[in-house]
């Protein structure tokens, strides 16, 4: 039986590319999404990947969403915490709700989703977890104290959980994407984005598939000696 892989924020952008890469790897893939019903329906129709709408920032919503997925497809053995949002602004302009939304969605979701799946992985002595961080969690970014803190938190979370899973056949790794050509990055003001791209040695934005390839590598069944690591895929923007 193919292992079930769940990708949060999996119907658009990097998450959608991850879903396709894991499907090509032979996984039974399911995608979570938060709000864009139209994009999710189109994604499901085009790729035959079932979609589940729930808010990963809410523990109760995750509990209900995961229970539904397990009932319909079986236990989750591969988990990719990809869902993320931005609420950019310099600290002086950043309201508390902008901070909370980003911390809860980007970092709180990792707690929620891992908390609800990790015990089962331990019992079965197999699990693959990939948390999607960011170059901006490694290097910081003007206008992103919330996002940088959440993504940096993901990198620490990953290293701690990796230690807890190691004896049970569970690997926990992070990917740190650079600037990838997605709706999130296209929302950055044009002039600002041009300056950012000028600092990428490869000379272009990444493709979602560049990141998905890394996730497929880290979640392979035989990738069992790599854990607690952060794979940076950023066009050379931050060599770490
Ligand atoms: N370093 C120093 N100064 C900078 C700067 C930088 N990197 N960037 C902007 N500034 C300056 C501007 O020149 C401007 O200065 P003046 O007022 O003297 O002209 C000032 O900062 C702008 O300050 P504002 O008060 O207007 O800033 P703001 O609160 O309105 O925020 C911003 C502006 C939202 C930060 C905008 O610059 C922006 O969107 N920046 C890009 C943020 C970014 O990279 N987001 C990534 C989103 S994608 C993503 O996150 C995916 C991933 O993982 C990579």
TrEMBL record:
Family matches, as PANTHER family: 3-OXOACYL-(ACYL-CARRIER-PROTEIN) REDUCTASE, 3-OXOACYL-[ACYL-CARRIER-PROTEIN] REDUCTASE FABG
Statement: the UniProt record of this protein carries the keyword Oxidoreductase: yes
Any one Pfam family match given in the protein's UniProt record, by short name: adh_short_C2
Organism listed in the record: Rhodopila globiformis (Rhodopseudomonas globiformis)
Gene3D superfamilies: NAD(P)-binding Rossmann-like Domain
Protein name: Beta-ketoacyl-ACP reductase
Family designation: Belongs to the short-chain dehydrogenases/reductases (SDR) family.
A single GO molecular function term of this UniProt record: acetoacetyl-CoA reductase activity
Ketoreductase domain ranges (all copies): 3-178
Alphabetical keyword list: Oxidoreductase
GO biological process, one term: monocarboxylic acid metabolic process
Annotated GO CC locations: cytoplasm
